[in-house]
Amino acid sequence: MMLYLLFYYTEALHLPITTAAWLYAIASVWDGVISLAIGLWVDRVPVVGRHCRTFMIGTIPLGLSFVLAYMPVPLTGNGILWWVLGTHIALRSFYALVNIPYLAMSARISTNEGDRALVAGVRMLSGTLAAMTVALGTVPLGQWLTGEQGAAAYSGAAVLFAIVATVLLIFVGLNYRDGMEDAHKAPATLPLLVTIMAVLRNRAFLVLAGAMSAMIVAVTMVDKSVLYYFKYALGDEQAGHLALGLMMAVSGLAIPLCLLFTRRFGARRLWFAAAALGAVNLLLFVFGDMSIVASAQIFLVVMQVAIVGQSFVLWALLPRTIDHGERNLGVRADAATYGLVALLQRLGIGMGTLMLGYILGHEGLKNSFAHTIASETGLRLGIALVPLFFFLLAGLIMLAYPVRGAGRDDRHPADAPAVSRPEA
């Protein structure tokens, strides 16, 4: 339900869009900082199964903080602002405590490239199904559970989703098995500076992180603009919820196609194809007729295909990027790498959210009591041109990715030999 949080702040809690965007951005930056800290800490814990143990510790607090983030409270003025910021930071903190070890666990589940690509695909597909459930079910389920609308409906849905998610996370933790050769050995504790420098000296990581950061800014602006565009530019909020559901549904179809494309043509080619598709689609959004609901929904569905393509490449290449750093530098830093990825992601999300907030504010969305869009064309230009720049930038940066096997040589990753790893 992170997808709904900004919309919840402005439409249910009636915060001004620029204020809500700043609060969201601050929490996103905090998420990135705490994610990096957790990643550095987990990699230095000299305990067998450290990733899974840390993951399990955060499951229940994450569920509770999620409920608090959507809990309506009788506060006004600065009180509601501090409540929103505090609960959002708590949510982000416990999410990082669960997410960073989980991502490291996904990189350690197997040494086979084909298995890793499959895990990335299944993880994305599962996330897509969950996102589709949230997009289509949040408001109806919340209204059914509480018999109310507005903030109470969001709160009811949050309680339900938190219970289900907590149970699933505990199940994953209890059944996870580490597939690395050193899984049953306590890792050597490296100095913190050595771990950080190992990540920052990994050229493959720097390139992938740069391309990812540009992509995240573009994706954030597109995703978070959906409900606002449909409600205020097209006058049909329900169609916006349907558009989100369609975006998630097409993700489920696109992920297996991404896996097949990667096996046939390589991961980098998929990245470039997705960047080109996104750029062309954004140009059509600017110059085409998007005053019709169906046209806007088709645009978003195509946009989601491009987003899924680049996201698939990111998560498929990260384990290989970590292997590349270990081969060249002799240091393996799973959680630290994912922690730095999370930091850059959250910075990108914060940057994209702030830019969108100022664009919406400039176009007339000042607060929930004065929703007038001065220019539908101006809104479209603001939403599309900045993401277009960042999609093109993401494609250009990926040209420098150095790992052999990320292009033609990874057409059949399932047949790739396992990477040997020196003992820590």
UniProtKB/TrEMBL annotation:
Family the entry assigns: Belongs to the sodium:galactoside symporter (TC 2.A.2) family.
PANTHER family cross-referenced by the UniProt entry: MAJOR FACILITATOR SUPERFAMILY (MFS) PROFILE DOMAIN-CONTAINING PROTEIN, MAJOR FACILITATOR SUPERFAMILY DOMAIN-CONTAINING PROTEIN
The keyword Translocase belongs to this UniProt entry's keyword annotation: no
Annotated GO CC locations: plasma membrane
One example GO MF annotation: symporter activity
Name of the protein in its database record: GPH family glycoside/pentoside/hexuronide:cation symporter
Membrane-crossing residue ranges in chain numbering: 20-42, 54-73, 79-105, 117-139, 151-176, 204-222, 242-261, 270-288, 294-318, 338-361, 381-401
